[in-house]
Amino acid sequence: MIGEHKQPKRNSESARLQNEVYIDGGGMRPDGTGSGYAYFNTTTGEQRVKAVPGLTNNQAEFRGLLYALHNLPVGSEAKIFGDSQLVVCQFNGQWAVNDSSLRALLNRAREIIQKRRLTITLGWVPRNQNLAGKLIESRHLMGPACEE
User: Fold this and answer.
1) Domain contains 3
2) Cα separations (Å) of 70 from 29, 54, 59?
3) Secondary structure (3-state) at 16
């Protein structure tokens, strides 16, 4: 359930399970505050929100992907869902990555996948079905209840 934090399964059984993960990010307000990202692994119940000032919306979306990848068990499989068509299409090679900062984030994601021996599929979901987005909303991106 969103709002509860369960300890993730980190044994070999959870590595074999196909994880279902939702990611989301939110860009900064005009004053440079309020940006951050989140992931929610529905398989393990693990969920995190991180406030990081100064991110654009697309940078925050990619950082949500990186955050999720770092927290998957080594050797695991995951279906990851996000509501950013740009991130999904760039990750899947359907769209060019023209922004150098986004290209660096995408390259980092590919490095993590390779290093951690992950099998990843990334798909798009509508905003109202993105459980990580609901997590961000419940924490009032990026209020004092958010994890630093």
Assistant:
1) no
2) 27, 21, 16
3) helix
Q: What tokens appear for 139 in the block?
A: 């924490």
In a domain, 148, yes or no: no
What integer pLDDT is reported at residue 1 of this predicted model? 37
All residue ranges of the chain with pLDDT < 70 are 1-16, 139-148
| Residue 47 in tokens | 């969920």
**Are 3 and 131 contacting, i.e. CB atoms less than 8 angstroms apart?**
no
Q: Look at phi and psi of residue 19 and say left if phi exceeds 0, alpha if psi is from -120 to 50, else beta.
A: beta
CATH assignment at residue 90:
3.30.420.10
| Rounded Cα distance, 77 and 74, in Å | 9
Residue 68 lies in a domain: yes
Structure tokens at 90: 């760039």
Number of domains in the chain: 1
